[in-house]
Specification:
The complex is a heterodimer of chains A (about 240) and B (about 230). Chain A has one domain: GHMP Kinase, N-terminal domain (Ribosomal Protein S5, domain 2, 2-Layer Sandwich), CATH 3.30.230. Helix content of chain A is about 25%, strand content about 30%. In chain A, β1 and β2 form a beta hairpin. In chain A, α1 packs across α2 and α2 runs parallel beside α4. In chain A, about 45% of the residues are buried. By secondary structure, chain B is α+β, with helices and mostly antiparallel strands. Chain B folds into three domains: about 45 residues, RNA polymerase II/Efflux pump adaptor protein, barrel-sandwich hybrid domain (OB fold (Dihydrolipoamide Acetyltransferase, E2P), Beta Barrel); about 80 residues, Nucleic acid-binding proteins (OB fold (Dihydrolipoamide Acetyltransferase, E2P)), CATH 2.40.50; about 80 residues, K Homology domain, type 1 (Ribosomal Protein S8, Chain: A, domain 1). In chain B, strands 8, 9, 10, 11, 12 and 13 form a six-stranded antiparallel β-sheet that branches. A four-stranded mixed β-sheet of chain B has the order 1-6-7-3, with no helix packed on it. In chain B, strands 2-5-4 form a three-stranded antiparallel β-sheet, with no helix packed on it. In chain B, α3 packs antiparallel against α4 and α4 runs antiparallel to α5. The radius of gyration of chain B is 20 Å and the shape is flat. The chains are: A alpha+beta (about 240), B alpha+beta (about 230). Chains A and B meet through β3 and α4 of A and loops of B.
Chain lengths: ~240, ~230
């Protein structure tokens, strides 16, 4: 991806990255379950400078009716970026990229959600990116999973997501916007921590087989960090105020 | 084996070993995994998770409160606060000799009416079939409808019905609880109605608090004095 900005040091000699993190350190992550009254389930995530709100509805009637499936429920995901989420105004109409991310997140959630329990219904997931700073699909996927749990949709496991990548010839965890633009590779990973299964894996860039293995390993470790925070978010909402 | 209770979220392993998976759990190898946010309970041979969130999913023999949405020439459709609509056939109300041209469905139930009904049949291929031909079932003529979260219905009933008895005794109200989270309260005195409403709302909000029955009792009694 170019590397137009020659003056920026992505990784200095002490192994410190352009935003001061170590190579295996994620950005600051905060997840909150609930928050939206009218949605059946919701979550809010701050993943570095990413700010994403997710609302979940369902299971509910499918409209239009012809989309419904008599054998199973269906999952519908809309990933949308607000016009003010990036520095130049973004056209609010769904772009090619947003349609792709919607599909990718939907397919990453499907192995976890037990849709077969609700035939002829739909579960709708609405993802609104309020502020974007690289790695929104991972942050959105992590938040969507918490929102689905908050809505009480049966799931085999949570889905935690984190990206890894190659920056200045080094495998690093959680690439930010600058590293994504100027780095060599970016690999978003979705992972079910208890089942130890990967539900999302994309790769943009070139890696050698060894680097690839390392990259997956680093990414999965990042997912485990995210998972702990998802757990905490749900515990805080449902068991936090208990008195016994 | 003792009845161990634990807070779980989806994906958590509740226990391992030869147990029968009951509510909100799946068996994966010999691990029993929770599928929802809730409290796990382990009995002698079975495991279940009491969900703390989620919509009402119909179960056969559940008592529900339904609201009439519309009718065809042969049946009514009831909103039962679920992802499916309840299906109430006209024969159930008019009896065997129901005839589609002689009997007018709106003479018995019209849109907006509340009914206490029982889920007669439900499987994944069809919408739930409900019936009102049983004791204590049928159209509800008076009372106030309160909506609570369906996952908190067991809490409102309490252990062996203690919670609901407490509220009924203190307020002289008749309370019908639908498993779908809709509750109808009817009471002679307006004060009793208000008190019962308040108590039900209190259970809905504070479902996770221990000793809630005592707290509700206290609230009901203190209100009575003032």
């Amino acid at each position: 991806m170019g590397g137009q900005d020659a003056t920026m040091v992505l990784l200095d000699e002490n192994g410190i990255r352009c935003d001061g993190r170590k190579i295996d350190e994620p950005r600051r992550i905060m997840i909150k379950a609930g928050g939206l009254k009218n949605a059946d389930g919701s979550a809010y995530i701050e993943f570095g400078d990413n700010k994403i709100l997710v609302g979940v509805f369902g299971p509910r009637d499918v409209h239009p009716k012809h989309m419904s499936d008599t054998d199973t429920g269906i999952l519908r995901v809309r990933y949308h970026m607000e016009p003010f989420s990036v520095s130049d105004r973004k056209n609010p109409a769904p772009s090619r990229r947003e349609i792709e991310i919607s599909k990718v997140i939907k397919e990453a959630l499907e192995p976890a959600v037990m849709l077969e329990k609700f035939p002829r219904t739909a579960v709708d997931v609405f993802i609104e990116v309020l502020q974007a700073d690289g790695g929104t699909r991972c942050a959105a996927l992590s938040a969507a999973s918490v929102a689905l749990a908050d809505a009480g949709i049966p799931m085999r496991d949570m889905v935690a997501a984190c990206a890894s990548g190659k920056v200045a010839d080094t495998i690093v965890l959680d690439v930010n916007n600058e590293e994504d633009q100027a780095g060599q590779a970016d690999m978003p990973i979705g992972y079910m921590p208890s089942l130890e299964k990967i539900t999302l894996l994309q790769l943009d860039g070139v890696l050698s087989p060894e680097e690839y293995k390392k990259c997956v390993e680093v990414g999965v470790n990042g997912c485990k960090i995210v998972y702990e925070l998802q757990k905490k978010a749900l515990n805080d909402k449902y068991f936090g105020t208990k008195s016994d | 084996m003792e009845n161990k209770r634990k807070y779980v979220i989806p994906g958590d392993v509740v226990t391992t070993g030869p147990f029968r998976p009951e509510q909100n759990v799946v068996l994966d190898g010999n691990k029993i995994i929770s599928t929802t946010v809730g409290i796990s309970e382990i009995y002698d041979d079975s495991v279940r998770v009491i969900s703390l969130t989620g919509k009402y999913i119909p179960k056969i023999n559940d008592l529900v409160i339904g609201k009439v949405l519309s009718h065809t020439s042969l049946s009514w459709e009831l909103d039962i606060n679920s992802c499916y609509v309840g299906f109430l056939p006209a024969q159930d109300v008019f009896g065997r000799d129901f005839s589609a041209h002689a009997d007018e469905l709106t003479s018995k139930l019209t849109a907006g009416d509340l009914v206490a009904a029982r889920i007669a049949n439900f499987d994944r291929t069809r919408d739930p079939l409900v019936t009102i031909s049983d004791r204590d079932l049928g159209k509800i003529d008076s009372g106030a409808l309160i909506e609570i979260s369906p996952s908190k219905v067991p809490r409102l009933i309490g252990k062996r019905g203690t919670m609901i008895q407490t509220i009924e005794m203190a307020t002289d109200a008749a309370i019908t609880i639908g498993q779908n989270g809709w509750v109808v309260v009817s009471c002679e005195s307006p004060e009793g109605l208000l008190k019962a409403k308040k108590a039900i709302q209190m259970v809905n909000e504070k479902a996770h608090v221990a000793n809630l029955t005592d707290q509700v009792k206290e609230m009901l009694e203190s209100k009575g004095e003032s």
